[in-house]
Specification:
Order of helices and strands: EHEEHEEEHEEEHHE
Shape: globular
Length: 244
């Protein structure tokens, strides 16, 4: 049967979701756990690759497995074998032709920033420390320009082919004390797109770019003018959305 599962992970010590020939990945760890649990080789595929060091609160995976027990037993067995950095949050039987990547309608990423003069070591694995003051309202003015259909070539490259057009459904900064979060929801993302966008928006927040100049970078599709990409540790794949 085909199983769909939601997985959370701390990506700090991994090369990303996708299996690598020379480094540890989330996919490889999941496949080894499934092999130990079922006694057979099992291939896992996900809703999308996350880069090295990027985390997930709601990565969606699927795999085909022969399993004679309940799905709750499958979940418990996997979590008993997985390292503490990876957890299976839920499992469900899926249609035989379901694909977590192709079937996805939108993905939600969050980037977290700790904006204070002194770093916070207790949160350094999951946020970027920015000591300089930031104008969050101006950053939001620029971020709002991302919503809609655009060619995002200035902020990344397509994983396949040359089409860099994506639809952003939401792009929003929120501030709670020293903590800033940037939430962006889109139908799909380019390679490093969120990290490049955040890096460019930080330039707006510091006063190095105006919102109008940010819009110019977006519309002229000048990759050299975007970024720089911020560190992966502040980025989390929050959820993947599908049709009901």
């Amino acid at each position: 049967m085909r199983v769909k599962a939601v997985v959370s992970y701390d990506g700090t010590d991994y090369s990303g979701f996708q299996r690598q020939s020379n480094a540890e990945s989330i996919q490889a760890v999941l496949e080894r756990a499934l092999a130990r649990l079922t006694g057979a080789a099992v291939r896992v595929w996900g809703s999308g690759r996350t880069d090295a060091g990027v985390h997930a609160a709601g990565q969606v995976i699927a795999f085909d497995v022969t399993w004679r027990h309940g799905l709750s037993d499958l979940q418990r067995g996997l979590n008993a074998l997985l390292p503490e950095a990876i957890a299976v949050l839920s499992v469900a039987e899926a249609a035989a032709d379901s694909d977590p990547r192709r079937d996805a309608r939108a993905r939600w990423y969050r980037y977290t920033i700790y904006n204070a003069p002194t770093r916070d070591p207790l949160h350094s694995r999951y946020s970027l420390h920015v000591p300089q003051p930031l104008e969050v309202a101006v950053m939001q003015t620029a971020a709002a320009m991302l919503v809609g259909w655009h060619d995002f070539s200035a902020f990344g490259s397509p994983p396949q082919g040359e089409n860099a057009v994506r639809e952003v459904l939401r792009a929003e900064w929120q501030a709670t004390g020293a903590w800033l979060t940037f939430d962006i929801v889109a139908n799909a993302f380019l390679f490093r797109m969120v990290r490049m966008i955040v890096g460019t928006l930080l330039r707006v927040g510091r006063g190095a770019l105006s919102p109008e100049q940010f819009a110019g970078i977006l519309h002229t599709r000048n990759r050299a003018a975007g970024g720089p990409a911020v560190a992966p540790r502040g980025l989390t794949l929050m959820a993947v959305y599908y049709e009901a």
